[in-house]
Amino acid sequence: MIGQVEEEVALIERHLDILRRVIENEPIGIMKLANEGGYEHHEVRYSLRVLEEDGIIKPSNHGAITTERTEEFVSGLDERLATLADRFDAMKIEERADGNHYESSEIYRRS
Q: What is the pTM of this model?
């Protein structure tokens, strides 16, 4: 269960890293993105496709470029990530409301 979430987070990290590189270096091609980011070409192509499908970037003759939606997406990103971080913090089992940690036996009794 958590392994799937970790894989998705790693994928989102890559998408956002590639987006940052597009913003900073547009237009930028697959080869340069792969070399600078240490990614395989197929990973870059997939991330670019996801970003393009969301309308955040678009292809050009010289490589990926930002769109009119890029700024809107980036401006709300930190808030959305903070909200997710809060949600993950709220899921923790081992910390009690008083700040102390549950003993293993307490966790299993709660189930």
A: 0.80
